[in-house]
Design a protein that fits this description.
By secondary structure, the protein is of the alpha/beta class. Helix content is 40%, strand content 17%.
């Protein structure tokens, strides 16, 4: 049996301290067994009346499986919306825990499963509900706006939930109403939105372990080697990296920018898992992962989320075979409160952005 080695991931807590959380990759797929595993997963999905919804950042095997079986590969919110609209009674979420929670919040009547419930997110981990709630209580005059990458409890404490594709527009809307913002958790995305809108924003302190590692100096050096390449950047990246972008966007926004710009070569500053879909949609185009960490340093994520990597064919099959410990549960009272800021965002999008359907988020 091929076994992957667990790793420990460092992340910055909201108070500046460093936290450590494990990431245990799934059992490795041995040469020659992939096709049999894929066929078994397809069979189980059909038998269980289940649909697979996968994030852009998970392994290509799961992305392809989702698309081949009538599921979807998309961002966290579209994953939940797709699951809600689909007739399947069970939603299988290949992603990280907050995505499974969001799917359950929007689909409380359905069963929601995940290959590994321990698949975390540094933004979620850095925003514990007790500390965040106290922070909100200290600033009652501010509208609480939280990013999708948060727990159900944090969403329940908020006024609005936003995604990277709509954050700027919602904050601008609140700013025009004269409202001050309490923003959480991603400080880089918050800084990007604040600069774009001019809103009064009080920031929580957290960052994504993947995007925080992109470095401007190394990006400049890579750009010098590929002068014709266009640079695509996710707004969870540091400001120095965002300034070098030819296009800044959410996950789907980055794909759409590549299709729109029609370059022959791109440098992509987000999780490298998205490149699988970009290559499928734009064959013949070169996609290069943006560099992480500094010279002589070692990267933690190396442009790949270690928790997204916890999803694999083996634990997906175990989940569908009924192994315990894979079902997502959200306290019903918390779920009802958390649904309100999500629905508020959806209503805003419906009224102000009719073209948002299918656009990218986290």
């Amino acid at each position: 049996m091929a076994v992957a080695t667990p790793i420990q991931i460092r992340f910055e807590r909201f108070n500046g301290d460093m936290g450590i959380a494990p990431a245990k990759p799934p059992r490795l797929v041995a040469p020659g067994e992939r096709q049999a595993l894929v066929e078994r997963a397809k069979q189980l999905l059909a038998q269980r009346d289940a649909v697979l919804v996968a994030h852009y950042y998970v392994h290509p095997d799961l992305q392809d499986l989702a698309q081949d079986t009538g599921g979807t590969v998309s961002d966290s919110l579209e994953m939940a919306r797709f699951g809600h609209a689909h007739s399947a009674k069970t939603i299988v979420v290949a992603g990280v825990r907050f995505m499974g929670e969001t799917a359950k919040i929007l689909n409380p009547e359905k069963r929601v499963l995940m290959p590994d419930l321990a698949a975390e997110c540094s933004l979620d981990l850095a925003t514990p509900i007790d500390a965040f709630s106290s922070f909100c209580d200290e600033h009652p005059d501010r509208a609480v706006v939280v990013y999708a990458n948060t727990s159900a409890a944090v969403k329940a404490r908020s006024d609005w939930m936003v995604t990277s594709s709509i954050a700027e527009k919602i904050v601008a809307h609140l700013h025009r109403q004269g409202k001050k913002i309490l923003w959480a958790p991603d400080k880089h995305l918050g800084d990007y939105v604040q600069k774009a809108t001019g809103a009064d924003m009080l920031m929580w302190n957290a960052s994504c372990v993947v995007h925080d590692e992109f470095k401007a100096q190394q990006l400049e050096e890579l750009k010098a080697l590929h002068p014709e390449a266009k640079v695509l950047v996710h707004p969870e990246s540091p400001a120095s990296v965002i300034r070098m972008a030819d296009a800044v966007g959410s996950t789907t926004g980055i794909i759409q920018a590549a299709e729109r710009l029609k370059a022959k070569e791109y440098i992509v500053a987000t999780d490298g898992g998205i490149i699988h879909q970009m290559r499928k949609r734009m064959p013949g185009v070169t996609f290069i992962e943006a560099p992480t960490a500094g010279k002589g340093a070692t990267c933690q994520s190396c442009a790949h989320c270690p928790w997204m990597a916890m999803n694999g064919l083996h634990n997906l099959i175990e989940t569908l075979e009924g192994a315990p410990g894979h079902e997502v549960h959200v306290d019903p009272a918390i779920g009802r409160r958390a649904k309100l800021p999500i629905e508020r965002m959806l209503e805003f999008a419906k009224a102000n952005l009719p073209a948002l359907q299918g656009s990218g988020d986290a």
